[in-house]
Amino acid sequence: MQKLSVAVAVFAVLAALVGAHKGASDLFVLAGAAALCAYTTWRAADISSYLKIFATIFSTETVVFGLIGLAEAEGLWPAALKDYAPPQSMPLTVAVFSILVYAVSHIRVVREMMRITDFYFDSKDRGEGRVWPLPPFAARESAIAVAMVVVLVLINQGQVGITVRLSFFNRDWFNAIQEKNAPEFWRQLFFVFTPWAFVYVASAVIEFVLQSLLVIRWRRWLTEHYIGRWLGTHTHYGMALAGGGADNPDQRIAEDVNRFINGAEEGYGVYSYTILLIATLSSLVSFSYVLWDLSGNYPLPGTDIYIPGFLFWVVLLYATVGTAVTHLIGRSLTGLYFERQRREADFRFSLARLREYSEQVALLAGESAERGSLLQRFMGIIVNYLAIVQKRKQLMVFTATYGQISPIIPYVITAPFYFAGRIQLGVMTQTASAFGRVEGALTFFINYYTSLANFKSVLDRLTSFDGAIDSARAQIVRTRIVSPAEGDDIRLREVTLSLPDGRSIVAIDDLTLSAGQSTLLSGPSGSGKSTLFRAIAGVWPYAVGEALTPKGARVMLAPQRPYIPMGSLADAIVYPSAGADHSRAAMEEALRAAKLAPFISRLDEDNHWSQRLSGGEQQRVAIARALLAKPDWLFLDEATSALDEELEEEIYSMLRQRLLKTTIVSIGHRSTLHAFHERHIVMEPAAGGLFSPRDKVHA
Ligand code: ADP
Ligand code: MG
């Protein structure tokens, strides 16, 4: 950035010198703009990485096009290449663009947008790319992405150039038609239109492919990023406990990420708002120049007075009024779209949840209650939908009228001149098309207003998701009480466990769980037994104190309702390790030991096992899991509560036989469990409504 800035500054000096030499005032303007551009380029070292790409492109172009322009002014540009020199206005335009990029980087919503965008463009990950027909290569993922963005911007600028060139073809062609000049008509068609049109089509196809690839790479990366952040250090659990903050993380990861980058039916994403915006702006500027020049053909009606850039001012006024009115009407759409995302996601989630709990609902005959609550949720969607329709209806009355009138206006303005014979047909049509282009570009914000509103809501959802992740993480880190220590025992000192709302429920002065001593924990329901286990497992983020666990020890916790992942039974018993980690024989043996022998033949069957298996069978799946994992510590939180006493006893004695190196700590209520534990701890009420674990001595 610094080097580039110096280059731009040197160019500014050169332009000023040539300007003095030639006495050309426009070169002084260019020199001034370049000087400012040199400054912003220097400062741009600190802006978002993504925006930096654009600042770099434009500053580089300022120097390149500017030098060509100077060479031309000094008569150094080869005459043979005359037709290929960029228009005089080009360096100034790109210099201003570069300055603009720097300026917008300070706008708040742009910063928010760029914060998320830069996750990808700042990433250090390696990626693999391939440019046909060369072989694949490895590079930094962000470098590949930057290269793609650069090419896309250049393609878009080139396309604007072609469109401008074709507008002159349009003028000459219609003039040929008016003059009945057949040879010129065909010459224009075959030697001007055809090659440019071909280049345009080719570039459009390349653009499409590149854009699609960039978008999917970016989405893959960002999805991985969010999944990683969400799952890391149990953040997802912390977020669920904390509640509020970010509803429906699933939807944010699956949908909002895609919308953010790529947009959706109702709108565009970052990709479009940057690269499309630049194409639109380039088009705006180029055709504004065309329109400005064409204005020289039109004096004020009935006079010989020419207002410089007359047509340009007309279209500017026209589009500004349009944008302002649209903004007034459509202002409240942002909030409505935000609300829509939330309601749709809530509805979908309740359906998914119903599917998960369908048996319980059926048993309770809760269908009509479910129907009621589903329909009520859906009503929420409808209310929001109708509010959106209402707003968009008002907006549409205006935008549709506007859209109908727009193509007519330039003809209405130019027709008197044409009929008076002051302009040719070609000039009239070129004026109309330039007018249309400028108006189209200016109304970019009008036409995309709704999508901008929508985009803002996606941005807000991702931003608040990030915020919720960060605060959940901070909570987890701040309250991390578990730390690895030397020794074999688990020791808790002055630990207080609380609920998410801040209420304390468990107080522990000093509790040591000795390795090799199986322990039973009992106590009233709701006395915080499970919470204590969660704290020892290191997932409960509302704790103060100190918990020391043996360094490197593997701790496994089996809850009352074990988690059965989607997939095969084999996946379920080896979870969370991979199937390859355990031999087939070991899996079968574990099933047999857990009294699940009949399922051995169904190990590979993909099924909704969490719904197919009975509660007791699911608990035994968790036991089989523990047998395979052979943890150093096994915490069984009412993990055998669904088994009859006899089976529970068999399972416990089997565990003690097979897991010789494992210390078992259980929560349970049945007195028969005492026989399998060497120590018994009871949760007893203590001061302040809290519960504290106390050793119980059996007579
Ligand atoms: P138990 O001793 O029966 O295992 P728990 O440890 O599960 O008791 O729960 C202790 C108390 O904490 C209960 O009053 C329960 O309602 C409350 N609690 C547990 N989990 C949460 C949670 N995620 N949010 C709010 N309260 C909770
Ligand atoms: Mg419990």
From TrEMBL:
The chain crosses the membrane at residues 49-70, 90-110, 143-168, 188-210, 268-290, 310-330. It is found in: Cell membrane. Keywords: ATP-binding, Membrane, Nucleotide-binding, Transmembrane, Transmembrane helix, Transport. Residues 158-454 form the ABC transmembrane type-1 domain. Gene3D superfamilies: ABC transporter type 1, transmembrane domain, P-loop containing nucleotide triphosphate hydrolases. InterPro entries: AAA+_ATPase, ABC1_TM_dom, ABC1_TM_sf, ABC_transporter-like_ATP-bd, ABC_transporter-like_CS, ABC_transporter_sub-D, P-loop_NTPase. PROSITE patterns: ABC_TM1F (PS50929), ABC_TRANSPORTER_1 (PS00211), ABC_TRANSPORTER_2 (PS50893). Residues 490-699 form the ABC transporter domain. Its main location: membrane. It is a multi-pass membrane protein. It comes from the Bacteria. GO terms for molecular function: ATP binding. Belongs to the ABC transporter superfamily. PANTHER family: ATP-BINDING CASSETTE, SUB-FAMILY D MEMBER (PTHR11384), LYSOSOMAL COBALAMIN TRANSPORTER ABCD4 (PTHR11384:SF59). This is ABC transporter ATP-binding protein/permease.
